[in-house]
From TrEMBL:
InterPro entries reported in the protein's UniProt record: N-reg_PII, N-reg_PII-like_a/b, N-reg_PII/ATP_PRibTrfase_C
GO BP term, example: regulation of nitrogen utilization
PANTHER family associated with the record: NITROGEN REGULATORY PROTEIN P-II, NITROGEN REGULATORY PROTEIN P-II HOMOLOG
Xref: PROSITE patterns: PII_GLNB_DOM
Any one Gene Ontology molecular-function term assigned to this protein's record: ATP binding
Annotated Gene Ontology cellular component terms: cytosol
Listed name of the protein: P-II family nitrogen regulator
SUPFAM superfamilies noted in UniProt: GlnB-like
Length: 114
C-alpha cells in the first residue's frame, strides 16, 4: 500500500479529479496549499527593507492511498492530464503506507482503501 501526494496547478484540479475517477480512483483528500518549486526566486521587499520574503503560488494537493499494483496507473493518469513541459506542471510523491483501518467496518490494509 502506498500514500501518493500530488501537487498541481489549481486550474488543473477538476480535470485531474475527473481523470482519476474515470480510472477508478475515487477516494482522495484535497487541500488548497501554497508553495514554490525550484524556479528562480522573486523577492518582495517590505517598506522598511528589513525583510525579504519568497513568493509562493496557489496549488492543489491531492492525497490518496492506493494498492501497490495501482500506483503506476495513478501516476500515468496524473501525468497525462497535467504534463505541459512547462515549469509548474506539478509533483507526485509516492511513500510507503504501513497500514490502514476502516473504522466503520473494521476492514484492514487494502480492503480499507478500496
Amino acid at each position: 500500500m502506498k500514500e501518493v501526494v500530488i501537487i498541481l496547478r489549481p486550474k488543473m484540479y477538476f480535470k485531474t479529479k475527473q481523470a482519476l475517477v474515470d480510472a477508478g480512483f475515487h477516494s482522495m483528500t484535497v487541500k488548497e496549499v501554497v508553495g514554490r518549486g525550484k524556479q528562480p526566486v522573486q523577492y518582495d521587499m517590505d517598506n522598511d527593507d528589513s525583510e525579504i520574503r519568497h513568493r509562493v503560488v496557489a496549488k492543489r494537493m491531492i492525497e490518496m492511498y492506493v494498492r501497490d499494483e495501482d500506483v503506476q496507473c495513478l501516476i500515468d493518469t496524473v501525468v497525462e492530464v497535467n504534463k505541459t513541459n512547462q515549469a509548474g506542471d506539478g509533483k507526485i510523491f509516492v511513500m510507503p503506507a504501513k497500514n490502514a483501518f476502516r473504522i466503520r467496518t473494521g476492514e484492514k490494509e487494502n480492503d480499507a482503501i478500496i
